[in-house]
Amino acid sequence: MTNPETRPLLQWSSAMALSGTIGAVVLSSGAAAPAVAFARCLVGGLLLVLWCLARGYFRTWRPTRRDLLLAALGGVLLVANWVLLFTSYSLSSIGVSTVVYHTQPLILVGLAAAFLGEKVAKSHLARAGVAFAGVVVISLSAHGDDGQPVRLAGIALALGAAVLYAGTSFVAKQLTHVRPHVLAAVQLVVGTVLLAPALAFTPLPHSVPGLLWLVLLGTVHTAVMYVLMYASIGKLPTTTVALLSYLYPVVAVVVDVLAFGHRLTWPEGLGMLAVLAAALAPQRGGGPAARKPRAADVTRGSDPCGTRTPARRSR
Predict the structure, then answer these.
(1) pLDDT value at position 254?
(2) What is the predicted pLDDT for the residue at 307?
(3) Which residues contact 75 (CB under 8 A, 6 or more apart)?
(4) In terms of pLDDT, which residue wins out, 127 or 289?
(5) In the predicted model, what is the mean pLDDT of residues 29-34?
(6) Which of 201, 207, 231, 298 qualifies as a FRET site for 106, CA 20 to 30 Å off?
(7) Where is pLDDT greater, at 238 or 201?
(8) How far apart are the two ends of the chain, measured CA to CA in Å?
């Protein structure tokens, strides 16, 4: 008899592995970050809208004005996060930016404490300290793909992207009653409209290969990836989801090393391990960690590009 978790396990693992190759696709397109984000929103959003229509998700959605405003706000934060993250790739490296970006689960907990009055455990403060100490080590020791020390601007942009994505996740926590596919589709439509004027300054690639890379990003790394994520997230234990989320930054670092010649220094590697261990460590207490999260509990807005573990974890 087939294990009922085998299929969702493969789906989630595939989504996380795809996330790790996003940076390579972005750089290979040769396009500026706003144009890349626009293409991702346009192609991915169109396909997700078609998917939701085919599945009948829009027929059962009765949005309130508050839902629409929050969804739009989440879309603004999401696309701004992408623009910052994609820009940071060229100023540091794919691996460095991706790992620094993984401080966002810790930032989300800070937002929840500040705006929702949620209590922050001492263990979370300790993890946050370890993670940001890792960021400092990376900033001082990492080198870019050109062999030169990474630009601090790249680190700052990756941290800024993490803050914005944490904001997207924070907004999504207020919309747990909305089907995640629908929320993602709405956010991508908002992103398309928001970024369209930027094409006057950062146009799409003129070459066919560049355009094909962007189509790939919107199709496989957005629409397909979102469907894989939301099909599996509610069927796996939180601990499994958290563990497999390691695939995203690990694949990104491996791609950076193999495809772009990035050379890890030992202090840089140590800093990366500190960030990932702190950001992805499960919350103490066996209760919630063992439960299977609902799709609505995912930190949505979801790229991927971000850690998409359940929001109920210590974030």
Answers:
(1) 92
(2) 35
(3) 186, 187, 188, 189, 190, 191, 194, 301
(4) 127
(5) 97
(6) 231
(7) 201
(8) 36
**Count of alpha carbons within 13 angstroms of residue 114, beta-carbon side:** 10
Is the pLDDT score of 304 beyond 90? no
**Quick one: tokens of 269?**
């590697």
Cα–Cα distance, 199 to 32 (Å, whole number): 10
CB 242 within 8 A of CB 60: no
Residues 297, 27: Cα–Cα separation, whole Å = 31
Question: How many other CB atoms are there within 10 angstroms of residue 245's CB atom?
Answer: 25
- On the 0-12 / 13-18 / 19+ scale of CB atoms within 10 A, 286 is exposed
Name every residue whose Cβ is closer than 8 Å to that of residue 72 and which is 6 or more positions away in sequence: 186, 187, 190
Query: How many alpha carbons lie under 13 Å from residue 91 in its C-beta half-sphere?
Result: 19
H or E element that contains 135: helix 122-141
Q: Show the tokens assigned to 294.
A: 């609902």
**Would you give the distance in Å from CA 26 to the centre of its chain?**
14
Confirm if 267 and 141 have CB atoms less than 8 A apart. yes
Q: How many residues does the chain have?
A: 315
Packed helices 22-29 and 6-20: angle between N→C axes, nearest 10 degrees: 40
